[in-house]
Amino acid sequence: MTAGHGDTGAPGRGTAEDGPLLELAGITQTYGERTVLRIESLRIARGARLAVVGPNGSGKSTLLRVLAFLDPPASGEVRLHGAAVAGRAARRAARTRVTLVEQRPFLFKGTVLDNVAWGLRARGRPRPDIERAARTALALLGSEGLAGRDARAVSEGEVQRVAVARALATEPAALLLDEPVSGADRAAQHALYAAIATAQAERPLAVVVASHQLEDAYRWADDLLALHDGAPTPVTPENLFRVELPGGGGNQEVAVGGGVIIQVTTDRAGPATLAIPPDEIVLSREPLHSSARNAVQGRIVRVAEQGAVMRVTVAGGVELVALITGKSFADLGLGIGTGVVASFKSVAVRVF
Amino acid sequence: MTAEVLGIAALSLRVALLATLVACLLGIPLGVWLGSTAFAGHRMAVLLLNTALALPTVVVGLALYLLLSRHGPLGMLGMLYTSGAIVVAEIVLAVPITAALAAAAVQGLDPRVRRTALTLGAGPVRAAWAVAQEARLALAAASAVAFGRVLSEVGAALIVGGNIRFETRTLTTAVTLATSQGNFALALALGLVLLAMALTVNAVILLLGGRPR
């Protein structure tokens, strides 16, 4: 479950023959003596949705700054459209194609509209185009009402949306978001991801989101890069749910939201996080007669191909990610919209 | 007498404004660059700049005198004892002020300003401009300090200007002369004119710098 080696991106968006948008090869980054990032290989397709997950200090922001061509790596090569980007002038040119929205975005003095127009003005676009594009970008984030407001007088969540609008207004080939939802509420988060989806539907746009909020990253992304101490790691808990365990020991029934109740085998009680490993989930067209205590009915909403394995997202009250082989996927005749049952044993549910 | 005082005040203002303007045009870009760029020898450059803040005005006057005097390397310019020479001296004194204060202002600024400008596709010049915009208030203060230094400076103006009546007599050199002649009423009056001028120009600079947020 890592994008550390291989392509990212769902089939249909970013085909193999036009090559990846961004590529890292043998990248390390250092602060003083300390190596804070070490990525052998990473390829980000045009139109990819890559989530970079990991705890604070795992190198997510460092990676984004390298990808954004803000910081040159200590060693290794960053490629854009297959061409190595090295030197100040090349990085500067590349920055007009890739843009980063920081965890706490900075808004310049002036109005919200001035801010959203900033990148377009830096590109010397004609004035009427700038205003129109800026307003369109704001509208995409549902923030057209903010246009005339003083940028220093908007709320934290609004700052986030304005910054994303400002980045999208420049029509980048890649949008990098560092912890985009840490300060925002759930509705704002939904609006943000919806806006990105709309932008991606209109034109090729690779989106990389760094987050320590695993479940959001997983649900949204096509692919995932988990970092630990600056290096890709294969260990990534999937299908996470924050729950309140009723207690009572043994088998417990717990609501995970969306009207879905999961059976868990644990002695614990109180607040906990449940994780269902994607390779423990069995997909079938009909309910199974088996020892699996859990069966969630839903429809396939996303499919990502990772070599011989398909990463299938099933929505049925909650979203579950299951890993199945490409052969099973074909044999069962699965596709986007297919109704399936996701089954897993209560002992497969990890509690932590 | 009044006409003469007005003439002196006008010359002082002209010299001070011109020197401040040039010092801002040279010093602020230098300071913004120093404050936002890391390079080998950066600390040494900042140290030299901060030392230049303490340049004694008479030393600058003397050095310039030697350069501009008839047998000096720049003697052919014929600038000694002209108001142009005073302007040059004041520029030398004011550039370290605008540069050092601009560098300090920019160094104290949120690092996200430059990063944000760069990631939005700005080149180095536009990014520096964005930084300057955000530090506008501090840069206005830097130019006000430079103007104050230039307007009130007497040592260099005296040495390279020569305090020639109707030619290079500025308010400060006139105060010096009036005091040495025991004409304290005139000296005080000239001092008040100097203060009023400083007040007016600083008010304008403050307005240009905008309100703090």
The largest sheet of chain B, given as strand count, sense and whether it forms a barrel, is:
none
The overall average pLDDT of chain A, rounded, is 87
For the record, the CATH class of chain B is Mainly Alpha
The helix content of chain B is over 70%
Spatial shape of chain A: globular
Rounded to the nearest angstrom, the distance between the terminal CA atoms of chain A is 20 Å
Low-confidence stretches of chain B: none
Give the assembly state of these chains: heterodimer
Unreliable stretches of chain A: 1-17
Beta content of chain B comes to under 5%
Question: How many β-strand runs of chain B?
Answer: 0
Number of strand elements of chain A: 20
> Widest sheet of chain A: strand order?
6-7-8-3-9-10
Q: Over the alpha carbons, how many angstroms does the gyration radius of chain A reach?
A: 21 Å
How far do the termini of chain B sit from each other?
47 Å
Structural class of chain B: mainly alpha
The general outline of chain B is globular
What does this structure look like?
The complex is a heterodimer of chains A (352) and B (213). Chain A has 352 residues and is an alpha+beta fold. In chain A, 24% of the residues lie in helices and 35% in strands. Chain A has eight helices and 20 strands. Chain A has a six-stranded mixed sheet, with helices on both faces. In chain A, strands 15-19-16-17-18 form a five-stranded antiparallel sheet. In chain A, a hairpin with a 2-residue loop joins β12 (251-257) and β13. In chain A, α3 crosses α4 and α3 packs parallel to α5. The radius of gyration of chain A is 21 Å and the shape is globular. Chain B is an all-alpha fold. Chain B has one domain (3-208): Orthogonal Bundle (MetI-like fold), CATH 1.10.3720.10. In chain B, 76% of the residues lie in helices and 0% in strands. In chain B, α4 packs antiparallel against α8 (155-161). Classes of the chains: A alpha+beta (352), B mainly alpha (213). Chains A and B meet through β6 and α3 of A and α5 and α6 of B.
